[in-house]
From TrEMBL:
One of its GO terms (cellular component) is cytoplasmic replication fork. It comes from the Bacteria. This is Omega-protein. Transmembrane segments: none annotated. It comes from Enterococcus italicus (strain DSM 15952 / CCUG 50447 / LMG 22039 / TP 1.5). PANTHER family: DNA TOPOISOMERASE 3-ALPHA, PROKARYOTIC DNA TOPOISOMERASE. Residues 54-122 form the Topo IA-type catalytic domain. The keyword Isomerase applies. GO terms for biological process: DNA recombination; DNA repair; DNA topological change.
Length: 122
């Protein structure tokens, strides 16, 4: 039975554990709830879903994980070599979530650096 978070990542974590434990050929039931209220949890256990219905959710997460790894490892190497060739030192990491998040932080820091105080009246 799978009872991890009801999302792609929860499904991926559970399936990875199932696969690594050698139980991938067994029938899987899925607890799919969106609330931690006692009544909802009981209802969820009374209505377990067929695990096969969530296989595509697992494959989505697995595919994203592989793509993140391939893109991250290759672009990190490429970007690092490019930056080092242009005189910079260190490793320059690239990632699907990390890179745009760091850019948002950079943009905010630039806004703060160029902030001009103005009187404000209500």
């Amino acid at each position: 039975m799978i009872a991890t978070d009801s999302d792609r990542e929860g499904e991926a974590i559970a399936r990875l554990i199932i696969n690594l434990s050698g139980n991938s050929r067994k029938t899987i039931k899925r607890l799919w709830i969106n609330s931690l209220e006692t009544s909802e949890i009981k209802k969820g256990f009374q209505n377990l879903k067929d695990g096969q219905a969530f296989y595509s959710t697992y494959k989505e997460a697995e595919t994203r994980q592989i793509a993140d790894w391939l893109v991250g490892i290759n672009l990190t190497r490429l970007y690092t070599l490019y930056m080092q060739k242009n005189g910079m030192r260190g490793v320059f990491s690239v990632g699907r979530v990390q890179t745009p998040t760091l850019f948002l932080i950079y943009q905010r820091n630039e806004e703060i650096k160029h902030f001009v105080s103005k009187p404000f009246y209500v």
